Amino acid sequence: MCAASAATSAGLPLRALSPRERIAAVADTGSVQSVDSSFDAPRPSPHLARWGIAAQDDDGIVVARATLNGTRVLLAAQDERFLGGSAGANHGETLRRLFVRAKAEHPAAVVLLVASGGVRLHEANAAEWALARALAALLDLRAAGVPVLAAGVADVFGGASVLACAAERMALLPGVRLGLSGPAVIETARGKAELDAGDAQAIAAVFGAEARAAAGQVELLAGTADAVRDWITLALRRPVSFAASVLAMHDRLAARLVASRDDGSASPSGRSIEFATMPLSPLPRKLVSLYADAEPVDHLGWLWRIRDRQGWLSRPLGVGTFGPREAHGLDAALLAHLGTAAPASVHTLFLVGDSFGHEVSRHAEATCVAQYLAQHAAVVALLRSRGVRVRGLLTGVGHSAAFFANALQATEVYALTGARVMAMETAAVARVTRLPESELAALMENDPLLGRPVRHFARWGGIAEILPDVDRERLLALAAREIPPVSPSG
Fold first, then answer.
1. Model's pTM, two decimal places?
2. What value, to the nearest 5°, has the Cα angle with vertex 239 and ends 137 and 372?
3. Domains of the chain by range and CATH?
């Protein structure tokens, strides 16, 4: 894009531009450059031909370096025109590499122009793992002191909503929708009485930028590049440390959670927030042996400490879902017991994964469940930055965003032999891939990309070891291993 056209597009609706044009419009005229040649190389998905879909060389993500008011920034813009901006394996890996590069270079900020339907279900296992690694890298970047700013320039759903909400600041353009579960997913799961996916007014009242901003969940910008530039400039004048940002968000989410349960009439108090975060499901019976030599450190039982060890176990949900109340309850325990000063001795935290997935409901979306899951991932990153060894342990079902934002944020993940990974419910996969559920059944067991037995997820690097049973001593020994750092190109 030439300098003259970039200047002209600054006043145009950003949503009408292509990803490259969006970057050029936001950046200083003529300042956009390649990050380096490795990011310029074609990265078409090798997994789409089987679905009769033509791959795109950039896999739906454009990255660049530029200046903004003379300040160095790195930028990424997603392309909603290509498969709804869905994050495939190469797309997610490009984001991760960008965040790792930014950590090495330390620019003034990384700016995300977000427009994505979430994890690409055509390549579910590989895509979920790649985007989860990108989320962890984003938060490690913030912990290193580089702010990440996300502006939703088109609809943002699924795992992409968690990634966007993990930024230091999040804004939406008018008419953009933000949510973890889309309207069709909620209608399928809970019926039209919960949410009619054909009711535009009802959808806007839950997911729309204007409703999100009115609820204090995001900032609302005018739809031009100039408005986004001004917002970025202002954000960079008000730096906040990662730890302070995480703690401040924890308090804001507590207030929102209490208000959502008390119809907005009550202020946060210890009594009401405890009620709002009380576990709804018992500890899974099959894990009794794992917790037999541990005791809860908070009276709600979100966090358990292994006796006579510097080892900790989070509470798995089992038959429950991981929503605002569960994420916030666990975060409160983690911050209280592991999130203060750097520990004198090394502590090991096992994020135990087993649930029915993230909460899919109108209430969860109105509360902005994506922010609660993003905040949980941020708390985990804060612990990592303070020397806590964080390991994931998948004992049952690693389901959708509940797995993505929890156990997959660990530095290593272990799994029991019978564990399963589900990127999304079968009905949603069928809707996206256009395969009948009957045909999907065999793929769900045997296909490396769609298969749910944990061995398939391990194939893509998402599982460090598959264990035959729960052996606490084996787990602690595995957790004590040195894990080599990931290089910017690795």
1. 0.94
2. 50
3. 3-239 (3.90.226.10), 268-479 (3.90.226.10)
